[in-house]
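Justification of resources, computational component.

The compute hours requested in this renewal are based largely on the per-chain cost of generating structure records like the one below. Each record pairs the submitted sequence with a full structure-token output. That output is archived, and it is also reused by downstream analysis tasks.
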Amino acid sequence: MKARLYLETSVVSYLASRPSRDLIVAAHQALSLDWWDARRRDFDIVVSVYVLEECAQGDADAAQRRLVLIEGVAIVPVSAPTEALAAALLAGSALPREARLDALHIACAALNGVDYLLTWNCKHIANFERLPAVERICRENGYEPPRICTPAELMGDQ
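The structure output for this chain reads:
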């Protein structure tokens, strides 16, 4: 049985964007593409309505490229407990108040028993200093947190 992976919007954005001249952005793009080509079939990939909404925003051409990438990907349900866990993550200072959408991504993954949350959002989601609080709050609320990682960390032995 494959592990389930929540594909957060930042990864989709890097996959769909035009090549960047910024070295860090270009590296994230390349690593995202490498992961997409080499590892995506190793996982049952899911997204949420939050990913769909974020992917649909902005430039129409870019939005279309993002939405095409995730076409056919399973959508996990969102419920009142999703909002409650996101609120707990914010109230418990696991994430700052302005990171509500990031808290919702984590909550969606936790409530739906997802094994991995793949992201390039290292400010709020894949933030090593925040992870202990995220994990503690998820568990205090009765949910196992997903393993939060970047595509670079989930490349395996490829």
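Helices lie at 9-16, 23-38, 49-55, 60-69, 80-91, 100-111, 131-140. Residues 90 and 97 are 6 Å apart (CA to CA).
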